[in-house]
Design goal:
Layout: H1 2-10, E1 12-13, E2 32-33, H2 36-56, H3 85-94, H4 99-112, H5 116-121, E3 127-128, E4 133-136, E5 147-150, H6 153-165
Antiparallel strand pairs: 1-2, 3-4, 4-5
Helix pairs in contact: 3-4, 4-6
Length: 187
């Protein structure tokens, strides 16, 4: 089993030849390997199936699964842009409709580390520019717990620029439609 786990860590995932290029930023030629979490899921699924089969058919089974060292699951979210990723994303935003809003969302997300859903549901009443924070109610957070997000000076400037460029007609911050700060999901 140890050898199988090592092989899975180094196995390249084959690209589906039937899959067509669906997006202009898609690059299917980059070799990919299985993530630690995928290997762990495969391993535990295989283990359960073999153990179930042994118990169902009542035969002695000397498990090869004990003592197997699995790759540790890394769920940390501390990745930042590498090299010129941010510049490439911003350049791509320029080609899109609503380029200003997309760039603002991208830069605001980078500055605050807020989730996309939180940013898209944010309203002006949640923004405290003087206290440099956004107070997110439990109704819009993934964890269903209210939280405060500190704003950097850059994030405050982004919101101030957004307010000047696209004056809010309601209490919402989204700019594609008047009822929201950045973006409307109800189009």
């Amino acid at each position: 089993m140890e050898a199988w786990v090592k092989e899975m860590e180094n196995t390249n995932i084959k690209r589906d030849p039937e899959k067509k290029k669906t997006h202009r930023l898609y690059n299917g030629d980059i070799p990919r390997t299985y993530a630690a979490s995928t290997i762990r899921k495969f391993f535990y699924t295989l283990k359960k199936v073999v153990e179930w089969h042994a118990s169902r058919h009542r035969y002695a089974f000397n498990t090869p699964f004990k003592g197997v060292k699995l790759p540790s699951e890394n769920n940390s979210r501390d990745r930042r842009f590498q090299e010129n990723e941010e510049a490439r994303l911003l350049a791509t935003c320029e080609k899109m409709p609503n380029a200003y809003e997309l760039k603002t969302i991208l830069l605001f997300a980078t500055e605050t580390a807020m989730r996309a859903g939180e940013i898209l549901k944010m309203t002006w009443s949640m923004v405290d520019s003087k206290g440099q924070r956004v107070v997110l109610p439990s109704s819009i957070t993934k964890t269903s717990k209210a939280r405060e997000v500190p704003l950097t000076s850059i994030a405050v400037k982004l919101l101030d620029d957004l307010k000047q460029k696209k004056p809010p007609q309601t209490t919402s911050v989204r700019t594609f439609v008047s009822s929201s700060l950045f973006y409307s999901t109800d189009r």
